[in-house]
Amino acid sequence: MDVLGRYRNLIVLVGVLFAQVLGLAVQVRRTTDSEPTRLIRVWAVGAVTPLEKALVWTQTSSRNIWHNYFYLRGVRAENRSLKAQIERMSLEQVRISQDADQARRLQALLAFKEQFISQTMAAQVIGSSGSELSRSVYIDKGESDGIKPDMAVITADGIVGKVLRVYGSTALVLLIDDQTSGVGAILDKARLQGILRGTPSGEVMLEKVMSDETVPAGELVLTSGGDGIFPKGLLVGRVTKVSQGSELFLNIRVRPAADLSRLEEVLVVTKTDERQAEPDHAGTARAIDILAERLPTVPPKPENAEKGAVPGTVAPGAVSPTTVAPTKVAPTNVAPTTVAPTTTGSPTKPKAAPPAASASSGAPAARKTESSVSSPGAGSGTSTGTPASATGTAAAKASTKPVKAAVQPQPKPQPAGQDSPH
Amino acid sequence: MAITYTSGEQVEVYRFSLPATILIPLIAVFIQAWLPLRFHFFTIFDLPLLVVIGFATARRNPLAGLVTGGLIGILQDALTHQPIGLYGISKTVVGFGASSLGIKLDVENIGARFLLTIFFYVVHEVVYFMIARGLVGLRMAWSWPHELLSGVANALLGVLVFMLLDRVKQRT
User: Domain B12-171 falls in which CATH fold?
Assistant: First the structure.
């Protein structure tokens, strides 16, 4: 008994340590999803996160009051600058929209399936794990908001991590620089795939890229979609250093695009759709309309033009661009530089362009060629630009688009500074 | 600055009120979780560890020290995504060690507190490293310069934390 009394403290210490080691071993060995420590975590998170939420709310509110009601210096200048930016971006959108439409057509041809982010939820970062070995943050959205484990978390700059644990009104997000995280990634230009992992020191490395490959510093890294969490094509970061690693692989250090040490607001991807790409005609039409607003309209067709139309010629405005003779249209309607490629017909253009395609899309000449490619059986183009062929007339009749849309074709819309001289 | 040896009769034992016992560790864990979001460098500090050392040296009761250390460690573990017990075991050892040493040393002295904090910070990191690597299988790299530098930084903060704790402790 004396011995027990004398070494009581030590015995208790050993007992407590033994119990904790045992508990740790059970957690490490456990491979199922059920968490034996769930209750402890819920209590701890429940004790700490309300304070964090309150503090973040106070901080955000006071900052909003200051910025939205008191500190309005430079707002007018900023407003002007933003308006100019919107103008520039509208034009840029036209170009990008056409490129996207082109990509969609090609994807449709290949029966290509891709993931789209269809729904996101904004969340505020309220706290971290507080440990260098657990690079994770807490957000103020949880189970009650529809957050589920394994949802992707992103910012406007790039990906952030994934939801690891979900509690009532908060969730734990594992950052991509944690050593236990793994993200399927692909190099933008080299198209080499690898796995993105964090290191104990907080760096992000792209692993499993063979050492005989060439990877330049500065190359962008995107998500590959292979992990089933992040949709394909999201920005991850940029390669900063490449060195020969051990074994057969390169050591590729990546700098995350999102600043993981200063996260304030994030987006949780709550829904992704996987669907086959389809040409987006509506989007194209809108883009065209934006551009059309900036171009002069074609004068309305004269009453007697149709009556007096000579066989072999076409009155301007009554035809689809595929059949317009340049000599008849160019002087009155559009600049020769923009119309010429359309009206003379490219060698790949089919002789009989499907009227529906031209009518529904109102697409410019460049895409008209693509749409004809997408129609099996259309055959290779043999148009020689013969004025007013019979098919051209048929196309003109089938076309329900207004004149403006019919003569809109532009090979490529130019940026603001390179607009058409009209 | 010297660590002086004190006899058992000279040792003063303190206690903390129940609100202080509950709220101080909670606030420490909260600050540890919240501040690194705004000031990333704060991750080198381990505020809950400083509270464990502060409580243990003031109470001078090894059992109270190990229980306090274990509970604060488990609370800290619960906020991470790692298995629960990594910080729990490390802080249990530190709590027990600090309170045992507190009986034998004069820990009212700033110099003693400074050195004691560096020592227990390194002990904490060694225990954590061994468990994380050996039992959990985490990839970890040990760097003496980093640990010592962090130890000094924690000791400097520790001196301030102990001064704050001195204000709430009560003589038994």
Answer: Arp2/3 complex 21 kDa subunit ARPC3 (1.10.1760)
